[in-house]
Amino acid sequence: MTDDLFPVIYSTLSNEALIAKILPSYEIGTVTRCQFWNRGLSDVYLVETQAGPYILRISHLHWRSKSDIDFELELLDFLQQNRIPIAHPLRTKNGELAIEINAPEGKRYASLFIYAPGKVPLGDLNPLQSQKLGETVAKLHLAAENFHSCADRHPLTLKYLLDDSLAIIAPFLKAHDLEYVEGAIAHIKLQLQDFPQAPPFWGICWGDPHSGNAHFTDDNQVMLFDFDQCGYGWRAFEIAKFLQVALCTGVGRTVREAFLTGYQSVQEVTELEMDALQSFTQVAQIWRWAISVNHANIHEYSRLDDHYFTVRLEQLKRLKSPDWQLF
Known about the structure:
single chain; Phosphorylase Kinase, domain 1; 2 domains; about 15% strand
């Protein structure tokens, strides 16, 4: 045997070490508990203090670069200053938004966020909550028109959302399924080839608007969180991403329409954008699929069985059908 450390692709950081080495960098008083909470696109820890709870997020090495993370944190800091209700990051005593950690697999980054008041809607959004969420997303888009960052973030272009996603999914697909997905992508590109990539159609997007990423209080005040997928993109894609998640999880038509009504109460969605929504829902489906495959390939490969791919392929087919809005 060798005394060298064995290489790893992912590590779970110690609760106790985070309390001792990371959390003292923040002005949050005495920490009473730090508990690993959830493994998503980042590791999430619940931090409890005498003053109240916080969320500590530790980036994954294989998901985003330091520049991606800086872009997101600067955006959230900007949105909070512009009164958009988001769970914003706190700065360290030295004024930093992220702390570098030398994890066994490489550099990871810790950020501490306020805890979003309220909770995820029970069951799912009701029409009033959905309308409120749509309003808030539209206000976010407007506020973010004045955001500027020196950090680079991969734009949500069709090449990134479709071509790069196909490269991730393709090795797992049977020949006839791969042929279908390639055909669907070619059709989407044809439908969206002349779609404007300039304001007001193009700007900052949250990237993952759905009921699981928003807390509502008892009086239906909303707070958004989880901006792992944010970047420059089409606002029509943002709306379509909400529709894609809602349609694939069985959210009713009334709730889906309430989101769009709320958005349009703040700013107009053009006829061009409305006509493109079906194509953009398919873009969202393919991107979300690729993100899921990437995550499972590292953390839960057993999920990637025939049933997993059959379900997602059928969802894509439904979103491509003429009756896509009827179920």
